Amino acid sequence: MNSRTKITVAVSGLNNTDNPGPGIPVIRGLLESVSFEPRIIGLSYEQLEPGIYMPDHTDAVYTMPYPSVGMKAVIDRLTYINSKEKIDVLIPNFDSELLLMIKMQDQLAAMGIKTFLPTLEQFEERHKTNLPEYGKKYNVKVPASFPVSSAADIPAVMKELSYPVMIKGKFYDAYIARTQEEAIGYFYKISAKWGLPVVLQEFVSGTEVNVIALGDGHGTTVAAVPIRKQYITDKGKAWGGIAIGGTDMLELTHRIISATKWRGGMELELIRTENDDLYLIEINPRIPAWVYLAVGAGQNIPEALVKLAMEMPVEPYTEFSVGTMFVRYSYDLIANFKDFEDISTRGELIK
Amino acid sequence: MKIKPNLKVNESGFLFDPTTGESYSLNDMGSIYFRMISEGRSPDEIRTLVINEYDVEASTFDKSFLDFESRLRNLRLIENE
Fold it and tell me: How confident is the model over B27-48, as pLDDT tens digits?
């Protein structure tokens, strides 16, 4: 008899908008788990995150204070939510939450809440600003990158680079600048939104390809699926994608996870050049929003991550179905006004 | 000329490259050329077969096959020899 273990998992990133967070696809993976019968607790930051209102995805939703408010407010809120829900595993899905959650791991563990996040060192060393050192340390091809804290430094940095150049925010956003004027314009646009430093990065010409992966923290790649995004929105988000063979991409992923002993989910952003060289342009230290493609291709990464968090044995995935595709769609959901009322006034919605 | 391994093509000429995730549509003549190249036939063999079987003029074939081959090469669907 196949009995699934009852488990309570808290998940953030319910913003299933045109710039989607990974929450809903993570939840879909968990709901399809063969090992777990999950109770899903949604954690929301905005009253109109679609995941709050989507039927059959969450059992309860609680609002959270922004991480920028500070650790105490977040701990207090999670203590309250835990007193009501007794959370087994927490999966934070926003970049802006990660640093705080990594620092809070021990306190969360003391509350009985397990996580499976990268170490602080792993999180810090893969920053865009540290990419050249990362490339050297792990013998990975990376574009030349320079952190810039003032627009006045751009001309000096551009003596080392040439136009076009990528201008990138430390968390999000990337633009191609073809002139110094454009570079300065994007510098101000990005720094106003995401703060400093802004990264000037060598433009590597080629096709962007990506890998979603899960490391067990001891050097083993538990799951890895290479894809190519087939359609990218004006917000730079994948609207369609396809699982590809990418043997060299998988080799690179295994090498990085083995060398860094990566712990948790990750997304590798790579450029394949005309000569078939792979350049690592970014490591996102969390599960990406297109994780459900991996689930559809045969690797249930959210389920495997929860098993790792629960210290359960996990057999690494070795196969996936090449050619599995996803296409996003938008859908007008008629929401229950009472749900809106509850989440807005009480900050919680019990379904 | 050798077609890149792993390429998948169906009966209606839908060609999928699982290494890159790119897909293409072959027209009727492209499907015939692709099948013959995949079978390991040389350009001369294909020329003779197509001209005889499909009542195509040699000059028309030459232009069409050259164009097809160069497209395969540009799209990197042919392995370097």
Answer: 999 999 999 999 999 999 999 9
Which DSSP helix (H) or strand (E) runs through A249?
Answer: helix A247-260
Which residues, other chains included, contact A302 with Cβ-Cβ below 8 Å and sequence gap of 6+?
A25, A26, A27, A29, A30, A33, A91, A287, A291, A295
- Find all residues with CB under 8 Å of A285, minimum gap 6, and list them: A95, A98, A118, A122, A123, A126, A264, A265, A266
Residue A209: closest C-alpha in chain B = B20
Q: How far is A270 from chain B (nearest CA, A)?
A: 13
Across the strands, what pairs with A266?
A213
CA angle A92, A98, A102 (to 5 degrees): 100
* Across A31-45, A66-80, A160-174, A332-346, least confident range: A160-174
Residue B81 banded pLDDT, cuts 50, 70, 90: low
Residues A29/A291, Cβ–Cβ less than 8 Å: yes
Question: Chain A residues within 8 A (CB-CB) of chain B?
Answer: 207, 209, 227-228, 230, 241-246, 272, 322-323
Q: Where are the domains positioned within chain B?
A: 2-79
**Domains, chain A, ranges and CATH?**
5-115+332-350 (3.40.50.20), 149-201 (3.30.1490), 205-327 (3.30.470.20)
Q: Residue A304 above 90 pLDDT?
A: yes
Q: How far is A39 from chain B (nearest CA, A)?
A: 36
- Measured CA to CA, the distance from residue A334 to residue B59 in angstroms comes to 63
In this structure, whether the domain defined by B2-79 belongs to CATH 1.10.10 is answered with: yes
Of residues A45, A56, A57, A99, the one with CA closest to residue A302: A57
A-B interface: how many C-beta pairs under 8 angstroms?
A: 23
**Quick check: B19 and A228 CB within 8 A?**
no
DSSP structural state of residue B50: H
What are the residues of chain B with a beta carbon less than 8 Å away from any beta carbon of chain A?
6, 8, 16, 18-22
